[in-house]
Amino acid sequence: MNPNQTESFTPSGLRGRFVTLEGIDGAGKSTHLDSIASRWRALGAEVVQTREPGGTPLAEALRELVLHRSMDPLTEVLLIFAARRDHLRQVIEPALARGATVLCDRFTDASFAYQGAGRGFDETILRTLEQWVQAGEGGHVRQPDLTFWFDLDPAVAARRVAAARHADRFEQQELAFFERVAAGYARRCGEHGARFARIDASRAREDVAAQIVDVLNQRGW
Predict the structure, then answer these.
(1) What CATH number is given for 19-218 in this structure?
(2) In sequence order, what are the residues at sequence separation of 6 or more whose Cβ sits closer than 8 angstroms to the Cβ of residue 17?
(3) CA–CA distance from 169 to each of 15, 65, 67, 153, 173 (Å)?
(4) What dihedral angle (degrees, nearest 10) is formed by the CA atoms of 151, 54, 69, 171?
(5) Is residue 84 scored above 80 in pLDDT?
(6) Are 48 and 40 in contact (CB under 8 A)?
């Protein structure tokens, strides 16, 4: 190696990992996404930051429809999973294949929480779409390696959203909707506990950050 060059040693635990951040609107997950990415980049990892719905030009266009146009629950679900399919094919799978770490603001857990629990949409259909849309080679269904669930009382989250920004179509829902969404996340966590890390999002920002670091340190990430 050229003595003037620096070789990057990325920890093997960071190669080709898919990490998601989940929680109801106002839980604060997006606040911590950049700090997680910075931590890994400092270790020499390639990090792809993305979001759902969104992440590609097509998926971002579908996101605008989902967030701002009135539609029935089935149309909403189909648009979200169509966006997810394009996102997987164009961004997530190629990044993982080359060994990058993908850090995504929401993924399929949000569909089960918002459309399933929140809207009351048939979870059997959601599971079928999950299998179809996230299917890869050999029938493998793509799921995150780690999911941070930012758990926060819906009433507290609603106050945060009201103080921070103009609400979109989801954020304008009544408190009971977000209580159902929070319960949906709790059920999803119970079903997939091995990949979920519950974060107490009611605590101060620095305490939330410390919880995240503890989880990453435990995994050697």
Answers:
(1) 3.40.50.300
(2) 96, 101, 102, 145, 146, 221
(3) 37, 10, 5, 20, 7
(4) 20
(5) yes
(6) no
Q: Give me the chain's average pLDDT, please.
A: 90
Query: Left (φ > 0), alpha (ψ -120 to 50) or beta: where does 203 sit?
Result: beta
Predicted confidence band at 7 (pLDDT cuts at 50, 70, 90)? very low
The domain ranges of the chain are 19-218
172 or 101: whose pLDDT is higher?
A: 101
d(CA 92, CA 85): 10
Tell me the backbone φ, ψ of residue 55, rounded to 5 degrees.
100, -20
Which has the closest alpha carbon to 207: 32, 20, 40?
Answer: 32
Residue 1 has pLDDT above 80, yes or no: no
User: Residue written as tokens 């950049």?
Assistant: 34
User: What tens digit of pLDDT does each residue of 173-194 get?
Assistant: 788 999 999 999 999 999 999 9
Residues recorded for the chain: 221
- Stronger pLDDT, 146 or 2, i.e. the higher one: 146
Residue 5: pLDDT above 50? no
What is the pTM assigned to this prediction?
0.89
Residue with tokens 């304008």: 172
* Phi-psi domain of 99 (left: phi exceeds 0; alpha: psi -120 through 50; beta: other): left
